[in-house]
Amino acid sequence: MAGNRTLTIIKPDAVANGKTGAIIQKITDAGFRIVAMKYTRLTTEQAGKFYAVHRERPFYGDLVKFMTSGTVVPAILEKENAVEEFRKLIGATNPANAAEGTIRKLFAESVERNAIHGSDSDENALIEGNFFFSELERF
Ligand code: GDP
Predict the structure, then answer these.
(1) Measured in angstroms, how far is the CA atom of residue 75 from the centroid of ligand 1?
(2) N or C: which end of the chain has fewer CB within 10 A?
(3) Domain boundaries defined on the chain
């Protein structure tokens, strides 16, 4: 059965470009409820752990550097079929391939600096939610 929560991160490019508010508006307009949200900055160790599945990829080092370059805004979001619905809302990884009206089409700069993260499975949504938020925060 599809879960009802996903984990997003508004990435350093979008936060630095002043797009946090506009992106949150898109998310809530699409019917997601914000369960938890904060401003934070990742250490190299934390970003490396979060993206550990990509550690063999050629872009891993750059990705970790990018994700630690500034403030990020992680959030837990709730909606029916949240993971799939949110992936639709953010669009393809590479903004050049993202559909019109998607968050990445509107706000991403490149395949790396692509404005926003969305969990790719219910299992990862849970793991990633637990990574950023304590039990009390994700009530
Ligand atoms: P996502 O699930 O759509 O975020 O995509 P992936 O899990 O495949 O990749 C994780 C993140 O790594 C992406 O959101 C990008 O920020 C970055 N990334 C993915 N592919 C590339 C690439 O080919 N080059 C670079 N520089 N970064 C990439």
Answers:
(1) 19
(2) N
(3) 5-134
Rg for the chain (alpha carbons), in Å?
A: 14
Distance 49 CA to ligand 1 centre (A): 15
Question: Which residue lies with its CA nearest to atom 3 of ligand 1?
Answer: 93
pLDDT tens sequence across 56-94: 999 999 999 999 999 999 999 999 999 999 999 999 999
Q: Say yes or no: domain 5-134 is CATH 3.30.70.141.
A: yes
Summarised one tens digit per residue, pLDDT across range 13-67 is 999 999 999 999 999 999 999 999 999 999 999 999 999 999 999 999 999 999 9
Does 112 contact ligand 1 (Cβ within 6 A)? yes
